[in-house]
Predict the structure.
Amino acid sequence: MALEVHLDIPEVDLREGTIVEAVAGRVPHISPSAALSLLGEVDLEGVDRQRLLRDAVRNAELDAFVRAGAVQIYARLAGGGAVPALLRALEDGTERVAAAVATALGRVGSPEQLDVLGRLRSGEGGRLLRARATFAEALIIHRFGLADRESALPPVELLPAPPPTDALTFTSARPGLAGRDRVLKAVKRDLPEFDVAKQDVYEVQCGPKLLEIAVDRDFVGPEGLERLRSGPAVPAVVAMQNQEHGDFYLGLIALSSPDGSGGVTVRLSRPGGDAVYVAGGSPKGSGLDLDLLAVRAPGATPVAGLVRLTASAVEISGTSSPRSNPARIPQQM
């Protein structure tokens, strides 16, 4: 989750040497996480933020969680330029750092890193590393539209539609320009390669939950529909609003693929790779109707939605249960 950071640090401590020491955990009144947040959010006179973050990514003596945080922030700031340092960070075999590197490569890497991610996915690492590498592979394949590469995303089970008797309804609207810009800035923060100039934003309010869906105009209209049907793509991302702080953060990434029968399947996953919704459908006239359902998972909320791509816009509507799906308890033998 990406939130606006407010730090109360004396100006005398905003020096490079103090920040380096704080990242290493040697400044009692500045935690390593606060020092990293400072490097990620604030331009400091005389401080080369990218260099300090790059050094932290490479420093095997730092705590693994600190290095993983440095990986995330460095990739945000440096974009594709972070890749060499990210690959070097894999050399010491620290699994927590490797999982963070895999996530970052999915967002800022290129097809050249697919072999590295494939080795992480099929290696002897733990479940977290394998899952992050699997999703990062799929994200690169879809970002670059690599129709000749198969992603290894696991199958999912879908929840049934919510009962209509007590379901909450939702429909999309268009936010104002200020709201649009705020949402796209939040998405760009976590996806440095995201092209904000190509996005239309649609707002969905369902109960207390506010979603902002940024749809790439390259995938709207007859030509856009043909692109969706011809190969993998990232046609949309979803920003969510933190109800406590009001900040927006990257919530879901939509990966679309042709279904082999002339239609399209879209999988919406959290940035770490956990699938949340799946939509699918076939062309209707010059548009496309996608029926959307929630993925069965502990805490998931049943949803039945319709995403309609017309010749010039996107329409989103549906219903959502006010109650989440409880976790299933394994039967005792």
